[in-house]
Amino acid sequence: MAKTYALVSLLILLAGGTQALDEPFSLRVGEARDLEEAGLALRFTEITSDSRCPIGVNCFVAGEARLVFQAEFGSESLELLFQVPPAGSDRQQFDRYSVTVTALEPQTVEGRNIAVSDYVATLVVTVENP
Predict the structure, then answer these.
(1) Cβ(103)–Cβ(86) under 8 Å?
(2) pLDDT for 118
(3) 81 phi and psi, to 5 degrees?
(4) 11, 43, 54, 107: least CB-packed within 10 angstroms?
(5) Is the dihedral of CA 86, 91, 33, 13 positive or negative?
(6) CATH number of the domain bearing residue 108
(7) Tens digit of pLDDT for each residue in 55-86?
(8) Is the pTM of this model over 0.90?
(9) Is residue 9 part of a domain?
(10) What is the number of domains present in the chain?
């Protein structure tokens, strides 16, 4: 019985699993997470651009990374677009939800390309007036 529970828990974790509200969590491009207590699911669908100023470089403009997430709540589906500056965050609100990208890793480094599979966004989801 304990082995079955551990296996099910591992499969949920590997598949993205569930997430509590008001707690930070990370997603890679292509991963999804269910926030069951809020009736919300989020999927990190793509990075459309990354012009963030590389570490150690003096840039005239800080730049930003553009991230796309798919949100599903009830029978609704919505695309969320985030513009995240270097070491910064961005927040989107819809319905009663607030989704904040608090970090995007890795930071850009001059002369090095970042593979899409290497991007990890850290998010926090809150619900207004649940």
Answers:
(1) no
(2) 97
(3) -110, 130
(4) 11
(5) positive
(6) 2.60.98
(7) 889 999 999 999 999 999 988 999 999 999 98
(8) no
(9) no
(10) 1
